[in-house]
Amino acid sequence: MIKKEQKELARWAMQYALKKGCQECRVGIFSGSESSFEVRDTQLDKLQQAEENQMVLYLFVDGRYGAISTNRMDRRELEKFIADGVTSVRFLAEDPARKLPDPSLYFSGSEASLELYDPKFQSVSADEKLKLAKSAATEIYGSDSRIISVSSAYGDTENFAYIVASNGFEGESATSSFGVSVSVSVKGDGDARPESYWYDESLTWEGLQKQGVGKKALERALRKMGQSKIQSGKYQMLVENMAVRTLLSPLISAINGSSIQQKNSFLLDKIGQKVVADKITLVDNPLLPKALGAKCFDREGIATKKRNVFEHGVLQTYFIDSYIANKLNVEPTTGSPSVLYFDKGNYSQQELIGKMLKGILVTGFNGGNCNSSTGNFSYGIEGFLIENGELKQPISEMNITGDMLTLWSNLAEIGNNPLKSSSWQLPTLLFDSVDFSGL
């Protein structure tokens, strides 16, 4: 946690920066720790442990702005560091859009209500962590003659922040996370070496999946055996929840404030317009308790709130921090999404597969890109051919092409299996009429 004396030091540093010529100042104290254990074929391959203790000062001087940081927490050293920082900022170009947010936008209260930190974090021993990293691999190592290699990893982080601003904001936060992952490669036909992975992540040690991650990774690798292309054409496309983020990311990037300000977005001037399918109501809910990515305030101290990003296909908001808001002469919202999920999902992935006469289940994307101005995209994919409601041939080395607004306007069904091990809690999605190129 951030100690009392650290908070006092942050407040002193803010006042000292004001004394040295800043008109406004924000100071953040950030601390935390992380550890990771990597295992290859059941043997410990890599161990890392790190701690952070840093002060960052955001200086607003004579219409100019700069940020400086240090891990030195001695007042005498900080005096010179801050004074030199203020002097340096005066050499920068003026930027009237750089200023602290309106105090009325600030969060006031305690983020502890979201329960984002596991109080048992420090009680988990290194032996327990290493045991989990090893057991994730040993549950499959040697279980199948086709296995070439198995790698597993365990990692955890705890992060604490205390932020104070000269126009009235004061807030602190504490978060933790625990994660385990396994990747496996197997002998396929000829020179083929199919590989896959699986993972779990949780805010708490008790909530972390301790068994089955390795078996899931092996299952996903083995089912890739015999991958090949199929005939090009338009198919229904079912995208696994693990892969949906690749398709949603261009939409979120297109409503980022910097993209809007730079006029580099295919969703420019689309607020209030229907741009995607009616059934899409995408929610950003930073205040969802015990959720990865949740937070009561953003990096500027602006209070977060639940908001619909798209509502029945209509674009409702952009993600705009105070700097971009000042440039655009609009009210800020927040700089980025926190916890994203679709408002309603009706079917399991297996039920969605069962509804398809002929289509493709996409389990992963292999490279590709999306043009941020036009929304045109091309992605490599892998997955399975679906016929009469059943998975048939595994496929790879195929591409999908199109434009994002057409793709998302063709969303046919939303799954009921949100990915809770991510801050973007996205489910399996079914799209109609997607162009696939193969044979």
Structural features, described:
The chain has two domains: 4-222, 2-Layer Sandwich (PmbA/TldD fold), CATH 3.30.2290.10; 227-439, no CATH class. It has helices at residues 4-19, 75-89, 126-138, 213-222, 244-254, 257-261, 322-328, 349-354, 404-409; strands spanning 24-40, 43-61, 64-70, 147-165, 170-186, 195-202, 233-239, 282-284, 307-311, 314-315, 340-342, 358-370, 376-387, 390-403, 411-414, 424-425, 429-437. The chain is globular and about 70 Å long. Helix 1 (4-19) packs across helix 2 (75-89). Strand 5 (170-186) and strand 6 form a beta hairpin. It contains nine helices and 17 strands. The protein has a six-stranded antiparallel β-sheet with strand order 3-2-1-4-5-6. The chain has 439 residues and is of the alpha+beta class. 20% of the residues lie in helices and 37% in strands. The mean pLDDT is 96. 40% of the residues are buried.
Question: Short summary of the structure?
Answer:
The chain has helices at 4-19, 75-89, 126-138, 213-222, 244-254, 257-261, 322-328, 349-354, 404-409, and strands at 24-40, 43-61, 64-70, 147-165, 170-186, 195-202, 233-239, 282-284, 307-311, 314-315, 340-342, 358-370, 376-387, 390-403, 411-414, 424-425, 429-437.
List keywords for this structure.
alpha+beta; 2 domains; globular
Topology (SSEs and partners):
Elements: H1 4-19, E1 24-40, E2 43-61, E3 64-70, H2 75-89, H3 126-138, E4 147-165, E5 170-186, E6 195-202, H4 213-222, E7 233-239, H5 244-254, H6 257-261, E8 282-284, E9 307-311, E10 314-315, H7 322-328, E11 340-342, H8 349-354, E12 358-370, E13 376-387, E14 390-403, H9 404-409, E15 411-414, E16 424-425, E17 429-437
Parallel strand pairs: 7-12, 11-16
Antiparallel strand pairs: 1-2, 1-4, 2-3, 4-5, 5-6, 7-17, 8-9, 8-11, 9-10, 12-13, 13-14, 14-17, 15-17
